[in-house]
Amino acid sequence: MDIWFFGSDKYSQVVLKSLQQDPAIKVSKIISPDMMSGTIIAKEKQPDVGVLASFGAIVPKEFLNFPKNGILNIHPSLLPKYRGPSPVQTAILNGERQTGVTIIKMDEEIDHGPIVAQFAEEILDTDTSESLYFRLFSAGGEVLKTILPAYLEGRIQPREQNHARATYTKKLTREDGFIPPEKLKVAITGTNAEAVYRQIRAYYPWPGTYTIIKFKIQSANWRTKPKIQNKRLKILRAHLENDKLVLDQVQLEGKKPVSFKQFCEGYPEVKIG
Predict the structure, then answer these.
(1) Smallest Cα–Cα separation from 75: which of 96, 114, 104?
(2) Does domain 174-266 have CATH number 3.90.1310.10?
(3) Digit-coded pLDDT (tens) for 80-136
(4) 89, 146, 197, 252: which one has the fewest Cβ atoms less than 10 Å from its Cβ?
């Protein structure tokens, strides 16, 4: 099986390595988003099929139609639910107990093509988006290898998605990870802690969660009123305990990650929670 692989990050590498370990598969070309403009289709040998995983860019029509059997996209959600760029983050943020992987034959619309294979996966209470993405793409790569022969022989007929039930996710920004100080404070004392904990898990490692803390900066002249300086505090790890949010690891702007206990000892004047 001659395959072109489309991928762009650490999650796609999981699928690529799985394919490369199969002696029945030859990955003849690996394409990242910035390579598409330099690839002249007319000069290439037509592969049997394309495989795309965590690509992060629109695939032009000439690429979609070039492999003999199209391009199969490994999407980490139970399509048509959670189309778009952040399906895993959105599932965790919404408190879903289950997600999954859908392998579709790509068309010109985002996550719109017919379903070739689909399976469910439990979302663990401790899952971050990183751990869940790795698990879904790892499983997706293994399932893909088992169905490829049947798909290429025409023994699998892709089925249309129920487009009326489609839901969509958005591209995340740094600002999505902001937790207002008061919201963090009440979560630590036991109010709405689950929602804040889901946000921390969903946005790790990207875009990350953070709050703003205030420092008093005293000038050399003690008569002068201290200045207030705002700094960003990243929240890297946390857990729930007795329905309260417990911070485990944080990182002050410009500093290295430390345990929350170390942070409190180093900055006793800062009150969080």
Answers:
(1) 104
(2) no
(3) 999 999 999 999 999 999 999 999 999 999 999 999 999 999 999 999 999 999 999
(4) 146
Cis upstream peptide for 80 (omega within 30°): yes
Rounded Cα distance, 129 and 88, in Å: 6
Q: Tell me the whole-structure pTM to 2 decimals.
A: 0.93
Phi then psi for residue 195, to 5 deg, are -65, -40
Taking a C-beta distance cutoff of 8 angstroms, is the pair 6, 59 a contact? yes
Domains 2-165 and 174-266 share a fold: no
Q: Which two tokens stand for residue 152?
A: 């290429």
Q: State in words which class domain 2-165 has.
A: alpha beta
For the chain, the C-alpha Rg in angstroms (whole number) is 23
Q: Are the C-beta atoms of 74 and 144 separated by less than 8 Å?
A: yes
Q: Where are the domains of the chain?
A: 2-165, 174-266
C-alpha 253: how far from chain center: 24
**Which of 9, 28, 31, 51 is closest to 142 using CA atoms?**
51
